[in-house]
Amino acid sequence: MSMSRTLKAAALALALAALPAVGGAQTAADNRAPIMWTAITVEYVGDTLTLRGPAELVQGNRRFRADLISGFSQAGDSRLEATGNVYFVTPDQTIRGDRATYDTGSGIIVMTGDVILTQGENVVTGGRLTYNIETESARIDGPGEGGRVQGVFYPDSSGD
Predict the structure, then answer these.
(1) Percent of the chain scoring above 70 in pLDDT
(2) Residue 91: its pLDDT value, please?
(3) What is the pLDDT of residue 56?
């Protein structure tokens, strides 16, 4: 890969990796934090940057990792797609699934497969999680036709 293509790939990675926050954990400081990425191999073809891994994007206190992360940009909108052992981690929450898509234009993350959302000891499982980073709203659907969402919640034992 030539130096100019390397710089272009790095710029694309930075543009795509404005990592979303879960549960309000995103701050202005996080948005301006440097973005670190790592992978075993990196491939840049056209407008698509592919990190093969395990691959990881880190910005501030947020981490997005998967076996494969691809990012591309078209008409000003960017999109990240991740497959295999996908995790999105903030200090408060962890989302795990088999596949994820993050559309930076709409601010929507969709995680599918064996989805597990944890916050502290609380756990919710399902087949599909849709999260809007602007409104901080989430929807979890059960797996397959008629599948059910399950959860375990621990009451606050601090007495507050």
Answers:
(1) 74
(2) 82
(3) 93
Residue 4 in tokens: 């100019």
Q: What is the C-alpha to C-alpha distance for residues 33 and 16, in angstroms, rounded to an integer?
A: 14
Half-sphere exposure of 42 (CA within 13 A, CB side): 17
Q: What are phi and psi of 108, to 5 degrees?
A: -105, 130
Closest CA to 1 of 36, 40, 41: 41
Do residues 114 and 149 touch, judged by C-beta distance below 8 A? no
Q: Which residue has the tokens 């621990």?
A: 154
In angstroms, what CA-CA distances link 125 with 95, 115, 131? 10, 6, 14
**43: how many CB neighbours lie within 10 A of its CB?**
13
The candidate with the shortest Cα–Cα distance to 22, out of 50, 60, 71, 48, is 60
Strand locations in the chain (E): 35-38, 41-45, 48-59, 62-74, 77-89, 93-103, 108-119, 122-132, 137-141, 150-152
